[in-house]
Specification:
Blueprint lengths: L1 H16 L7 H95 L3 H7 L4 H76 L4 H27 L25 E3 L12 E4 L5 E3 L4 E9 L3 E7 L4 E11 L6 E2 L4 E5 L9 E8 L2 E3 L9
Antiparallel strand pairs: 1-2, 2-9, 3-8, 4-5, 4-7, 5-6, 6-8, 6-9, 9-10
Length: 378
């Protein structure tokens, strides 16, 4: 619109400063018609550019949301694989112990059978035919009974161990099958992640191409910030209407002593630049770095937001919130109670950022305040 006004103003100024050379009525009408056509064409181009830019942003949201889900799926698969590997190791240890027990029981049974062999065939019959000392007969019968009972116990224990070994082998086979399946799923998810990452790069490049100048980019960033502010005000209002608001966590007492949500250099300070980062700080960190909650509270928002990418908000009670943006993925969900130091997400570059970093913000009663006054000095 400023550009359109500039064109019209330029024509008016041209006529005003060259009064002696004003065109005829026909020429003036033709020039005005030409000007109107130029303005209309420019307006259409601007409209098309805005629509294309909005389309690119919608596409960015879709691909970054899917990227976050893919990262989470990969983490789940890798976690399951670690658990299966641990269970497999435990089962193998259990199997080795069972095999050792079975070997010991088999050796003991062999000794018992050898003792019976030394007594010869039908030892009970020999006892009946032997007309020796009755006390000696009782002792021998008791020995034979114990030997027989011990042999039966050994055989029952060996049977139990055989069954346990079979079950263990079956469990190992099942876990190995699942591990093989997991390896295939991980390979597929990794390929999907690479594909989506490449797709995101193309979307970001396409979005960048929609800006004719740095001024246009800056204006769009400020527009993103205004829209985000409106959404944040809505979230604040919704929290105020809750029947059970988040109880106080006494976060105000920790001002100046809060831990850093992630370690790194501050690349954008509070209210030192334009755009969505104006009300917080940007902490440089590698993609995938764990992001921690700075104080106990409740997650009230975890979703993609224009300008912020994947944004997570924690309500700490007393109308104080902390915001964590440009996340690669979420590891906490809305409604979840969070303790200080809990992982809530991973550092990323969502929101169309050119490099990975964490955007961190603190708000009191809906108004942004300098986060560096809250987190501990280093």
């Amino acid at each position: 619109m400023r550009r359109l006004v500039g064109i019209a103003a330029g024509v008016a100024l041209l006529y005003a400063t060259h009064g002696a050379a004003q065109p005829s009525e026909t020429q003036a009408r033709q020039q005005l018609d030409n000007l109107g056509q130029a303005i209309e064409a420019l307006s259409e181009r601007l409209s098309e550019t805005n629509e294309a830019r909005e389309g690119a942003k919608r596409e960015l949201r879709e691909v970054e949301t899917e990227l976050a889900e893919t990262h989470q799926r990969l983490d789940q698969l890798q976690s399951e694989r670690r658990k299966l590997n641990e269970e497999t190791d435990q089962l193998r240890t259990h199997r080795d112990r069972l095999e050792a027990d079975r070997e010991a029981q088999s050796a003991a049974l062999g000794q018992q059978l050898a003792a019976l062999y030394r007594l010869g065939p039908t030892p009970q019959l020999k006892l009946l035919l032997n007309q020796g000392d009755p006390a000696e007969l009782d002792r021998m019968q008791a020995y034979l009974n114990r030997l027989t009972e011990a042999r039966q116990q050994r055989m029952a224990e060996i049977a139990r161990l055989d069954s346990a070994l079979a079950d263990t082998q079956q469990a190992l086979a099942e876990r190995q099958d699942r591990l093989d399946t997991l390896s295939e799923e991980l390979e597929a998810e990794s390929a999907r992640l690479a594909e989506r990452t490449q797709e995101r790069r193309g979307v970001v490049d396409n979005l960048d191409d929609r800006y004719g100048s740095e001024a246009a980019r800056l204006a769009d960033l400020n527009d993103d910030r205004e829209q985000a502010e409106q959404r944040l005000r809505e979230i604040q209002a919704e929290l105020a209407r809750l029947d059970e608001p988040t109880p106080t966590t006494h976060i105000a007492r920790t001002q100046g002593d809060l831990p850093w949500p992630v370690q790194g250099d501050i690349t954008a300070a509070f209210q030192r630049r334009d755009g969505v980062h104006y009300n917080g700080i940007v902490i440089q960190a590698s993609a995938g770095t764990s992001v921690s909650a700075v104080h106990p509270g409740r997650v009230v928002f975890a979703d993609w937001m224009r300008g912020f990418g994947n944004l997570l908000i924690i309500d700490h009670g007393d109308q104080i919130m902390t915001l964590y943006a440009h996340l690669q993925q979420f590891t906490a969900r809305p409604g979840q109670q969070i303790e200080r130091g809990d992982e809530i997400g991973r550092v990323g570059d969502s929101g169309g950022q050119s490099r990975s970093a964490l955007y961190f913000e603190v708000r009191s009663r809906g108004e942004p305040i300098n986060p560096q006054r809250w987190i501990a000095r280093r």
